[in-house]
Amino acid sequence: MKSMFKILKEQFQYFYLIRRLSAFEIKSENRNNFLGSSWEVINLVIQVAIYWFVFSNVMERSDVTLANGEKIPYIFWLLAGFILWVFFFKSTLNSSSSIYSRIRILAKMNFPMSIVPSFVIFSQLYIHIVMILIFVIIFHIGGYFANIYYIQLLYFIPATIFLILGLSLITSTLSTIVRDVHMLLNAVLRMFIYLSPVLWDIGKLGAPFGDIVKLNPLFYLLEGYRAAFFGSEWYFITHWEYSIYFWVLSILIFIIGSNLHLKFRRHFVDYL
Amino acid sequence: MEYVIELENVKKKYKLYKNQKERLLDLILPKSYGEEFYALKGVDFKAQAGDTIGFVGINGSGKSTLLNIVAGISPETSGSVIVRGQTALISVATGFKESLTGRENLEMKCLMLGFSKQEIDAMEEEIIEFSELNRFIDQPMKNYSSGMKSRLGFAISVMVDPDILIIDEALSVGDATFTKKCLDKIKEFQQKGKTIIFVSHSNYQIKQFCNKVVWLEYGKVKAYGPTVETMKAYEEFIAEFNKLSKEEKKAYQEKHKFNN
């Protein structure tokens, strides 16, 4: 508990540093391209177009029914979940390698090492927000208009960041010690997309499998995003038991991550 | 007078693994795998404010390890390390982001050293002027020569006005005029009463600047004292050492290096 508050305090104390460093992060990744940071967006659009083509033309997925009984064309259902998945996937993966790839630059006295994964996550957050704006335009074209339920994004985005931050404290520490952890994470995440309701409505599989997959905290976040975009319900209130589960799990992950991080951070440089 | 740096019986252990398997076993099993190697075998060393201390010693004597411990970059395995004040380490081409421009790297480094936006804006021009990069400052650093990189590194480190300046071989790059400028800056630091630690293979520079010299040999302080005497002893040793045959040199190293 104590270590969690220590890490959280560092995040707030160095928030300006997180913001500036995340801006440099985006800049340095896309400096060589003429289109610069827009490649991040272009890439995602191409990916979505491929999924859409495969699943709606080749495999002919049917409409998906939401909690309030409304039927959503598969492509919009896919888009609403995919946007969150990409944010989760890229920031989890990048933050896992964040410490060992920068330790040479950052191994300075008094540098708060815990903000390294955070600024990597933040650099992905900017892209995520731009993508949400683009997708909202697409939803409007498809006839799904802005609604009061959009407000719950202000709850689900921070919830997502908190979960990723907790995970990143664990993965960035472990992959600094054993580089293979990063490779393993990459493989696990690629599998995870099929265990989450991103490409297909896994929750409709029926008991017991349909319930087991709900243990995945990403399930909660994905459904929350969809509830917001399609205005079906206040997801975190109607599913309050699930909200409690999500926060207990996320805080637990964060506590484990903080302890691991603080235990090893002084020795990171020796693991190079 | 108060000591700014106090090291007591500082040891630094590294593990030498034959292969990845040993490394993994050592991580997960309580039993120890791999060979232990002490880069520092109990170093005692104190420095007062205003001292300029040279570190000398042949390759593998632990100079860089000791520097990294004083600079707070790597932790000591045992012993006590007390460093009072902000340190700045200058070494050849220290961690820059190659894809960013010199100016962006400048801001990033200063941010990470804990300066605010206003302070950085105030220092920026002065740093660029000192580095003599002029128009190149807005070019990506991957196009810089090693001399340009270390000039920028040196410029940043001296402008942030640290209490303890640690210089690791950084003056061996750059032309004579820039080296002169750096040395002038070091003199300025000395006059302000700051502590400087200086590692150089140039005995001439050591003799010119340092008032004290630490002679390290295989992780131990062989001698620590005023420059003139220590350097005399060190130079005599080097002359003797160079006379040895290849086999004798090797035998000497083996004998001391792994002997704790």
From TrEMBL, chain A:
InterPro entries: ABC2_TM, ABC2_TM_bact-type. It comes from Ureibacillus galli. It comes from the Bacteria. Residues 35-264 form the ABC transmembrane type-2 domain. It is a multi-pass membrane protein. Its main location: membrane. The chain crosses the membrane at residues 34-54, 74-93, 114-142, 148-171, 183-200, 244-262. It is found in: Cell membrane. This is Transport permease protein. Keywords: Cell membrane, Membrane, Transmembrane, Transmembrane helix, Transport. The lineage of its organism: Bacteria, Bacillati, Bacillota, Bacilli, Bacillales. Belongs to the ABC-2 integral membrane protein family. Signal peptide: none annotated.
UniProtKB/TrEMBL annotation, chain B:
PROSITE patterns: ABC_TRANSPORTER_1 (PS00211), ABC_TRANSPORTER_2 (PS50893). One of its GO terms (molecular function) is ATP binding. Belongs to the ABC transporter superfamily. Residues 5-243 form the ABC transporter domain. It comes from the Bacteria. SMART domains: AAA (SM00382). InterPro entries: AAA+_ATPase, ABC_transporter-like_ATP-bd, ABC_transporter-like_CS, ABC_transpr_TagH-like, Bact_Polysacc_Export_ATP-bd, P-loop_NTPase. NCBIfam families: PRK13546.1. This is Teichoic acids export ABC transporter ATP-binding subunit TagH. Keywords: ATP-binding, Nucleotide-binding, Translocase, Transport. It comes from Ureibacillus galli. The gene is tagH. It holds the Pfam family ABC_tran.
